[in-house]
Amino acid sequence: MIPEFAAASDDALPIWPVWKGDAPPAEANAGGWADACEFTAAAGEICLLPDGQGGLAGALFGLGDRARAGRDRFCFARATALPKGIWRLAARPEGFDVTEAALGWLLGQYRFTRYKGSQPDWPRLVAPDGIDAPHLQAIAAAEFLTRDLINTPAGDMGPEQLESAARSLAGEIGAEIRVTSGAALLDDKLPMIHAVGRAAATEPRLIDIRLGETGPQLTIVGKGVCFDTGGLDIKPATSMGLMKKDMGGAATALGLLKMLATTGAAEGRRVRVLIPAVENSISGNAFHPGDVLTSRKGLTVEVNNTDAEGRLVLADALALAAEERPDLMISFATLTGAARVALGPDIPPFYCDDDGTAQAISAAAMSVADPLWRMPFWEPYESKIEPQIADLDNAPAGGMAGSITAALFLRRFTEGAGRYVHLDIYGWQASAAPGRAKGGAGQGARAILAALPAILP
Questions:
Q1: How far apart are CA 187 and CA 180, in angstroms?
Q2: Which member of 20, 98, 108, 330 has the greatest number of CB atoms within 10 A?
Q3: Which residues pair with 332 in a beta bridge?
Q4: What InterPro entries would the database entry show (predicted)?
Q5: 6 lies in a domain?
Q6: Domain containing residue 384: CATH number
Q7: Whole-angstrom Cα distance, residue 117 to residue 107?
Q8: Do 123 and 142 belong together in one domain?
Q9: Is it the case that residue 398 has pLDDT exceeding 90?
Q10: Domain endpoint, select from 84, 115, 131
Q11: Which of 105, 131, 157 is where one domain is finished?
């Protein structure tokens, strides 16, 4: 499905958003009818208004309690439950964010239908005056790409299929792409990507996409573990069930690349996307607990848990990226359960040493309803990632501060980059919410897009 607004139409039915406790606008002529229907303007509540001839004259839509608006992100996405047809926004009460509402409407129409059913016949919204409709449509289409990639099971979205998706996007936006796979990873000095993925039936690979030739450089690295058994430190079945989403960082990176290209944000900038695409599987040649791997950067890594593989493949990709000395480097990864324990599924932590960059990202995240929360590269914890027999430990003992120690591990491989930002995302919506169907979810891409003018002018 392509998320689009409807063209303006004289037949478009009006929607009047109403805050709880406010009377419906007089022009809605809804007073007595709304009372008879016991319309309270609770968040997402819809009151259809008759035209007196057996048809519809419009609808009231409840926004809920104005003082608690922040508790219901993308509330207006619930208006996609209206009857099919063309609708228009007829009022903008104080405190109603029309841009968020319009984007929420588009995002609320996503359904993953590859294996079952078809897209519902959604109602359509005329683009409200004053919004940048093409910009919002491009953002929604990129988010749909991210969701589709995450939702596709590993049997149909392994490293080879992820490469195909990357090639398709590169062709769509006019980008260059190069892929290194199998034993060639060793020739190109990417040994940890090879070590993690060599046990799988599908060869590990590094996907390298470039867009633009002039301007400051943004390099995006996305974790592409297409399925994670845990390796020889095998996960229990309850932990393995959602591991098709362990390539959520790669899916988000590709979604962000699509946003940058289709909104025009990539113009005047060089954008590079690196995706180490692997399966962490089990076979006779799987890497072992206790192995010591030598990374591209030359740092040795003691493998104290084969289920902490994401940071290994990211490390080689980050080291490669840093050699080019990009102005800004960003990594997206479904990396740690510790991040979920700390902040829950809705708020990914991000790490950044540069206060100005971090503040701009935080502000942008709030402005576009794509929440992020800054966490520290806490240097006193550096000793936790330093084992006795190697330079680094991929899985420090103790179980505390797991997201921070993972971020510190990655930072060791970013020397040379102008600035580094790491996002520890979840990439999944456990239950449906306004604008977010159950399943795969992009996190952080819209925030980075909104922050880009400030962080990479």
A1: 10
A2: 330
A3: 222, 423
A4: Leucine_aapep/pepB, Peptidase_M17_C, Peptidase_M17_N_1
A5: no
A6: 3.40.630.10
A7: 19
A8: no
A9: no
A10: 131
A11: 131
Give burial (CB, 10 Å; 0-12/13-18/19+) of 370.
Answer: buried
C-alpha to C-alpha distance for 81 and 339, rounded to whole angstroms: 34
Question: Is position 5 within any domain?
Answer: no
CATH number for 65: 3.40.220.10
In order of 165, 176, 204, 379, the CA distances from 169 in angstroms are 6, 10, 20, 39
Asked if residue 332 lies in contact with residue 423, where contact means CB atoms within 8 angstroms, the answer is: yes
pLDDT, position 388: 87
Instruction: Identify which of 446, 397, 400 has the alpha carbon closest to the alpha carbon of residue 423.
Output: 446
- pLDDT score for 70: 76
Beta-strand pair 176-181/439-440: unpaired
**In whole numbers, what is the pLDDT of the chain averaged over residues?**
96
DSSP state of 83: P
Q: Which tens digits make up the pLDDT trace of 405-431? A: 999 999 999 999 999 999 999 999 999
For residue 209, what pLDDT band results from cuts at 50, 70 and 90? very high
Check whether residue 362 and residue 349 sit in a common domain: yes
Q: What is the pLDDT of residue 118?
A: 83
* Cα gap 79→104, rounded to integer Å: 9
**Considering the chain, what percentage of its residues have pLDDT values greater than 90?**
94
Q: Which amino acid is at 74?
A: F
- Examine residue 303 and state whether it is found in any structural domain, yes or no: yes
CA angle 449, 1, 259 (to 5 degrees): 15
Residues in the chain: 457
Q: How many domains does the chain have?
A: 2
Residue pair 324/349 in contact (Cβ under 8 Å)? The answer is: no
pLDDT band at 30 (very low <50, low <70, confident <90, very high): confident
Q: Are residue 241 and residue 205 in the same domain, yes or no?
A: yes
Return the pLDDT at 335: 97
Positions annotated as catalytic residues are 235, 311
In this structure, are 450 and 328 located in the same domain? yes
CB atoms within 10 A of CB 310: 27
